[in-house]
Amino acid sequence: LCALCALCALCALCALRALCALQELCRVLFDRLEDAFKGTPNETLVNDLYQGRMVDYLETIGYAYESNRPTEFLDLSLQVKAFGSERAFSSVHESLQAFLTPEKLEGENQYYCEEAKMKLDAIKGFRLEKLPYVLTLQLKRFDLDYTTFQRVKLNDQVRFPRVLDMNPYVYKGKSSGGEESGDGESLGSGSLNHTSGKGDFERAINKERERLLATCTDADPAADPAADDDAEGKEEKVELPDLVDVSGVKSPDQAAEDRQAALSADSYPEDLQVDPAQLAKTAGEWVYELYAVLIHSGSALGGHYYAYVKNMHEQKWFTFNDSTVTQVDSFATIRSAWGGAKAGKASTLTSSYGANAYMLLYRKYDPLRNEAEPEDGAVPQYIRDEVANAEEAAVKAQEMQALRARQLEVKVMLGGCAEKEVSVYHDKTHSLGSLKRAAAKALGVRLRLEEAQAGTQAGGGAEEEDEDMPDLCSQGDPLGQTPTQGSEDLFKLAVEEVNELWEGGVRLEDLRLREVNYAHKVLVRPFDEEAEGKSLVDLHFHNFKRIGLEVRRPDGCFEDVPAEASFIRLSVFTPPSPSDFEADGADGAGGG
């Protein structure tokens, strides 16, 4: 159960690129899980966890017709900003109220009634009848700017609480099936007052419905519904006595008043630390705890998804960002996901970059159903083995990545034979002397047995080989030696000549590395013994550095090349003969 909730909370961490794909990905994931669970005890698990029920109702004005269409949902999409409004909703509570407030269909939007055979004014709205165990709220932060007809992101501040009281929003009458709402379960016996103490939301919805249904155009102007609201508002402002029940629990109105008084000028109701157990006793059973916040970081043109997920057992928050998981220091980090511009102000961040909440996941407070994390002994052995293998593979991948970061690709050619060069991948912290041995091996030059055996060791310090580090070349990795150009025949002749001259193999002192002038493909300044003791980093080697390996004859010596020597390439000029001109003229005439 916990693993499934975490999986759905982190579904945004997949390779999403489309801005609206997150909600769709959740639904595709649920479909795949349902297919996989068919015929098993978990066949209804997804619906048991995430499915709620609401009613899409419609009632005509002036004609007795009413439609109630029940529908199941896996998530609720809440607006950040109402259509045509410059002001964003300040909180999840305000957006929920707007979602459940009925609207009037009139004018061009009149409803065509099949029974009446005519268009009629009507009211339309939604009723929440049953909420799921895991409540998923999507904040619709991506919208269309009807002025520019461009896609925009709404980075306005939308506050969300750590503990969400959904009791005011659940319908308390009969359900669409004629049963008590909640599939026969009690929907809470406490007050319907919102946690901020601002009144009965269900009563406000009923008043709005009655106002929209009013059809009498010659009504007495004095009979203003606002006057009744004011009168009732005055009644609500009467201070309540500090009453407690036999268990010492304060009345819901008194508790709400105390919470409001605890707020400072710079804080919000969402900042309060609310005890879900106490709230469930006073308000009803539909109390939810925030356990995951999915973030979109970017603009309407693109961005990145990551998530904050709460360990409900340890009461700690963690950031899941691709393959990186880190603990969150304080809830202030989660609070920053509320967004940018505060409510009541025109947002200047409409299409700019922002990192804010895109989807919220709440778990119902239910001590009997909320399961603790499984202990280590409860995890099957095959799962522990898979985790251990995955961790071992991750360590090896990190080691390989570290090795690749230390490798340099050096291009080596044999002597003055520029017809072919090979790539040698060498640790840049190792010495140039060890590169000489690797270059000889890559070119096919046969070393003496003792020299080849010494190749597995080096002279200490930066030259010491790491036995635990994998050898890229020995594994046939793409980073191994790769011929890149030139004639194979000429190169083989050069290598065979060297190996024939040194029947027992070449000694390392009979090899010398030299710089290469690649423009003219000639060997220039040689590296001395002091340079061979330095690392490639100290010698400022870089990727695709070109060097030459020079082999002296058994009875010869290396050419003495002064450090200040200049190298000049001479090209022999052969004057053209008269026949060449005649041939060129004939070609030109034929071409004309």
Strand content: 15-25%
Number of helices: 15
Instruction: Please give the radius of gyration in angstroms.
Output: 39 Å
Separation of the first and last Cα atoms:
85 Å
Structural class: alpha+beta
Largest sheet geometry: 8 strands, mixed
Q: Would you count the extended β strands for me?
A: 21
Q: Provide the helix percentage.
A: 25-40%
Average residue-wise pLDDT? 76
- Uncertain segments: 1-20, 177-199, 216-227, 229-238, 342-351, 458-487
Keywords for this structure?
alpha+beta, eight-stranded mixed sheet, five-stranded mixed sheet, 15 helices, elongated
Q: How are the SSEs placed, and which strands pair?
A:
Elements lengths: L1 H8 L11 H17 L7 H6 L1 E9 L5 E8 L2 E4 L12 H9 L2 E3 L5 E3 L4 E3 L1 E9 L3 E7 L1 E4 L4 E4 L9 E3 L35 H13 L11 H12 L15 H10 L14 H8 L3 E13 L2 E10 L4 E6 L2 E4 L3 H5 L18 E11 L16 H26 E8 L6 E7 L4 H12 L5 H5 L34 H14 L9 E7 L4 E5 L2 H4 L12 E7 L26 H14 L1
